[in-house]
Amino acid sequence: MGRYAATDEAFAALTRQHVDGAYRLAWAILRDSADADDATQDAFAIAWRKRSSLREPDRFDAWFGRILVNVCRERLRSPSRGRVRPLDEAPEPTVGDSSSSVSDRDAICRALDRLDLDHRIVVVLRYWADLPVDDIGSRLGIPAGTVKSRLHNALRSMRPRLEDPR
Fold it and tell me: In which domain, by residue range, is 151 found?
């Protein structure tokens, strides 16, 4: 397939269509709104500079998703990122709402926060972004078998934290 020669306007239109989803994905990985804002902006800036490498506009989502995940990964690995308290040192949140959905969501977030970066990313891409294993592998540049292994290990690690102790 030939190269896609995006005009500045066409590329800007593609990015406008994906900005909200990009922010939500960055937030799901980074768990911080300021970091998600920065990562989203950085990813779009990188995408703009690399726009000539976009060969098929209908694959923008996968192409840009890979850029965004890599930006999030770098932000999480950055030594300049503020020190985060380990969860066992963090105070238990006070939840005024007694609904189980709020506590379930909190438990899932805590379990995700305890995963290492590679495991967290595959869980978010699979269950939050609802991507199939092959698409996750393509975005991350890893084989589908590695994605499956990371999902299995992540879910196995999360399960004890999510099971009802009653």
Answer: 98-166
